[in-house]
Specification:
The chain is built from 25 helices and no strands. It is mostly helical and about 500 residues long.
Length: about 500
């Protein structure tokens, strides 16, 4: 489409294509449920371990592999759906993808064995692969470059909000009802949102920038020759490795760090009165370990495996943990709302301010999107490390500050991806980015953290992984020098 006077008028006077607000709101809602579903899994990991893998020495590695299963299918299929998104209706791809992942989430809820849960997470990845590359491409075609950063920030604001709601929903529902209901509850709204997408009007590609030509294979291959695209992807990969792994394990880490248990007569009496109380033989074995000593979760599980058979550990660990918690010990349903609330508040503010800062500073600093992203990561790193060694409740304050700075890049970095890639290949550009950042990022980091934790502790594993935070910041600061040149090349080529 050529850059006609009418197009110029719409982009300068109205600042958006017709229906852009409704489209953005729908995509925001979809992205919200996307991250609710992802962090539902993280919130109930302790419950999944007690249900499927209570006596497995490699339990945490296997639980981390559930995220790996989702990410592998997501990253492998994203390039395919990105290619389709450059040629067919993106709204239809999004709608089908959202419906598929919602149904797959329901399958996670009815999983009766670990392999079934693993299989269901693979299909969640298939659904999200159809949605992930197309959505930011649609937004880029609805808003001109001057407003794109702040609008992208609104879309990606769903990451902290959805993640927080996922932590809260998973934690509270698993305590009040059952962990399975945390997955059931996201199915109806997901299906409804997917159906709405099928009725949305497809915006012309390049509408906001006046793009007017189709590109060939050489243009797709040329993506890897754009310095700001490559360095942005490298920075996002390091960031995704950290945030994806930490998000997957943070509720379990906080529960493991703060929860306390005791095998006192009163606790054992409470266990005997539980609805699914262990049989007399198991309780007799536990009686032999009676003590007033307060234990961590790791210490209690070690004691259980020393006196119970593997089958008894498999069947009764969950109820034993619930019945022997001390009065002052926080439950999973109490930890996750606090962490979720912090993530939501800090993430919302940071994501919106990051997008606004990138847009406002752009006239003065050509690499503003990368500058605010890189500086945010460098500030957030020491704050996050300090939170790991600070006692609660003071650690919550440090976590809030760390999450704020770690989310500051979300809007600017995705806006930069859109600005340096031609509208005709933008969905594929996002798909390639998705493939790389997940293949080398959060597809493997939950498994890595789990494997390290099996040999040491979750605290040690998370500390090691966070060393990549300043690395991501360095990539963005490096890329700032190329951003204006690469953006101008796309803008001049489109007009």
């Amino acid at each position: 489409m050529s850059n006609t006077p009418a197009t110029e008028s719409f982009s300068k006077k109205n600042g958006a294509a017709p229906g852009a607000g409704l489209a953005l709101a729908l995509l925001l809602a979809i992205n919200l449920f996307n991250y609710i579903d992802r962090q539902n899994l993280s919130a109930v990991i302790p419950k999944l371990e007690a249900t499927f893998l209570p006596d497995d020495p490699n339990a945490k590695a296997k639980l981390g592999a559930l995220t790996f299963a989702f990410m592998v299918t997501y990253m492998i299929l994203s390039p395919l759906f990105g290619w389709l998104g450059d040629r067919f209706s993106r709204w239809k791809l999004i709608g089908v993808g959202v419906i598929l992942w919602s149904l797959a989430s329901g399958l996670s809820g009815i999983a009766w064995l670990y392999p079934v849960m693993f299989f269901s997470r693979c299909f969640v990845g298939v659904g999200e692969a159809a949605y992930g590359p197309a959505a930011p491409s649609v937004i880029s075609d609805l808003y001109p470059i001057e407003k794109r950063g702040s609008k992208m920030a609104w879309f990606y604001m769903a990451i902290p909000v959805g993640s927080a709601l996922g932590f809260v929903l998973g934690g509270l529902v698993s305590d009040l009802l059952n962990w399975r209901w945390a997955f059931y509850l996201v199915v109806p709204p997901g299906v409804i949102l997917g159906l709405l997408c099928l009725f949305m009007k497809e915006p012309p590609r390049g509408l906001a920038s006046g793009a007017k030509r189709k590109l060939g294979l050489s243009d797709y291959l040329a993506l890897v020759k754009i310095p700001s695209y490559v360095l942005n992807t490298a920075g996002m990969t390091a960031m995704t490795f950290v945030l994806g792994g930490v998000a997957a394990w943070m509720p379990a880490y906080l529960y493991d760090r703060e929860a306390r248990f005791e095998l006192t007569p009163a606790r054992l009496e409470k266990l005997a009165g539980a609805a699914d109380a262990p049989p007399d033989g198991v309780r007799t074995k536990l009686e032999s370990m009676k003590s007033a000593t307060v234990l961590t979760q790791r210490e209690l599980k070690s004691k259980l495996t020393s006196v119970l058979t593997p089958e008894e550990v498999q069947r009764h660990t969950s109820v034993i943990l619930e019945s022997t918690q001390t009065d002052k010990s926080p439950k999973l349903g109490e930890i996750t709302p606090i962490f979720g609330g912090i993530t939501a508040l800090a993430g919302i503010i940071a994501t919106l301010l990051g997008g606004i800062a990138g847009d406002r500073l752009r006239p003065r600093f050509s690499g503003s999107y990368f500058l605010v992203s890189g500086i945010g990561m460098l500030i957030g790193f020491p704050l996050f490390v300090a939170a790991l060694f600070t006692p609660f409740p003071y650690a919550w304050l440090l976590l809030f500050a760390a999450i704020f700075f770690l989310f500051f890049n979300t809007g600017p970095t995705n806006t930069a991806l859109a600005n340096v890639t031609h509208p005709s290949v933008r969905a594929s550009a996002f798909a390639l980015n998705i493939f790389v950042i997940h293949a080398l990022g959060d597809a493997i980091s939950p498994f890595v953290i789990g494997a390290i934790a099996d040999q040491s502790s979750l605290s040690t594993a998370i500390l090691i992984v966070t060393l990549l935070v300043p690395v991501s910041g360095a990539f963005w600061l490096w890329g700032a020098r190329y951003l204006k040149r690469d953006t101008d090349r796309i803008e001049s080529g489109a007009n």
